[in-house]
UniProtKB/TrEMBL annotation:
Pathway: Carbohydrate biosynthesis; Calvin cycle. GO terms for molecular function: fructose 1,6-bisphosphate 1-phosphatase activity. Binds 2 magnesium ions per subunit. Mg(2+) 1 binds at E84, D103, L105. Residues 188-321 form the Fructose-1-6-bisphosphatase class 1 C-terminal domain. It is an enzyme of class 3 (hydrolase). Belongs to the FBPase class 1 family. PROSITE patterns: FBPASE. It comes from Glaciecola siphonariae. The keyword Cytoplasm applies. It is found in: Cytoplasm. This is Fructose-1,6-bisphosphatase class 1.
């Protein structure tokens, strides 16, 4: 089976980017091991501290964040890091050529129930003019990403990765510790009968999504004349992996509860990297008003409404916005 290295070379990734990706994944392998230890290693449960999002941090949020910071900070490739668990950017090497944004542990609410969790990351060039502690350099649209991916800590540890030449899936071979290519050039089915959304938020949604989801649930008896099934892993990394594997539409839409916060998911280290993977696999990634990867960020922890998945189904969903 092909190794990650040779696929990245085949996709034309520059050597330094390949070395950076390998360094980041070395951190993810350590997280995979710590996660698999669970209660044996005392890594389950919450801490007493809150992150900049106002969420109580899980022990694994803090552990994963520290592992990735320690792994990347002195690598020499990275100028600065932005992380879900860090209020400000983390300065690294002044002559580093890359910026890395990551969600060290996605699906935190799943840690205690031994369910799917993961790490999500995106990589962009660091502007020459930038000082390592300057957050403004991260305020680039997603179209500027040079690589993105996630590592899914599930029954097997899997990697989904793109450098802009298709989306590929890899499986961690725990016998020799390398990621091996298990599915090249993923193509998401354009049509689907599977949707994912947290319906407990329904009363807070805007009218277009209310109507769109109502029509999905109406199934063959409704205007879509087709039955739909629902799934919700409560970990974006798990829901998006399912979409890459068999199609579907994943939604975390605008929510009227607090109009200043237009969604739950964060642009830099959740929505953008997933949008890059989905688009490179032939799917669509929208905020409802436009392409996620064209959103111009105004701050590093900015949130966006998120609609991702099978091309024709996302298009059908967007028609409700036009109506
Ligand atoms: O609790 P809800 O509304 O189901 O939200 C689940 C969503 O929140 C998240 O867990 C947020 O990510 P974090 O766990 O990294 O904070 C997503 O992975 C997931 O899609
Ligand atoms: Mg997350
Ligand atoms: Mg997280």
């Amino acid at each position: 089976m092909k190794r990650l290295n040779s696929q990245l070379q085949q996709d034309g990734a520059p050597l330094e980017l390949i070395l950076l990706i390998r360094t980041l994944l070395a951190g993810c392998k350590e997280i995979s091991f710590r996660v698999s230890q669970g209660a044996l290693a005392g890594v389950l449960g919450s801490t007493l501290s809150e992150n900049v999002q106002g969420e109580t941090q899980k022990k694994l949020d803090v552990i994963s964040n520290q592992i990735l910071k320690d792994t990347l900070r002195d690598s020499g490739y990275v100028k600065a890091i932005s992380s879900e668990e860090e209020e400000d950017v983390v300065p690294c090497s002044a002559d580093g050529n890359y910026l890395v944004s990551f969600d060290p542990l996605d699906g935190s609410s799943n840690t205690e129930i031994n369910s799917l969790i993961g790490t999500i990351f995106s990589i962009a060039h660091a502007p020459q003019w930038m000082k390592p502690d300057d957050p403004s350099a991260f305020l680039q649209p997603g179209t500027q990403m040079v690589a993105a991916g996630y590592v899914l800590y599930g029954p097997s540890t899997m990697l989904a990765m793109t450098t802009g030449r298709g989306t590929h899936l890899y499986t961690l071979d725990k016998t020799h510790g390398g990621f091996l290519l298990t599915q090249a050039n993923v193509k998401i089915p354009e049509q689907t009968s599977e949707f994912a959304i947290n319906t407990s938020n329904q009363r807070h949604w805007e009218a277009p999504i209310q109507q769109y989801v109502a029509d999905l649930i109406a199934g063959a008896d409704g205007p879509r004349k087709k039955d739909y099934n629902m799934r919700w892993v409560a970990a974006m990394v798990g829901d998006i992996h399912r979409v890459l594997c068999r199609g579907g539409i994943f939604m975390y839409p605008f929510d009227k509860r607090n109009p200043k916060i237009p969604g739950k998911l964060r642009l830099l280290y959740e929505a953008n990297p997933m949008a890059f993977l989905i688009e490179q696999a032939g799917g669509l990634a929208s905020t409802g008003e436009g392409r996620i990867m064209e959103v111009m960020p105004s701050e590093i922890h900015q949130r966006v409404p998120t609609l991702l998945g099978s091309k024709e189904e996302v298009e059908s969903c967007l028609e409700y916005y036009v109506k």
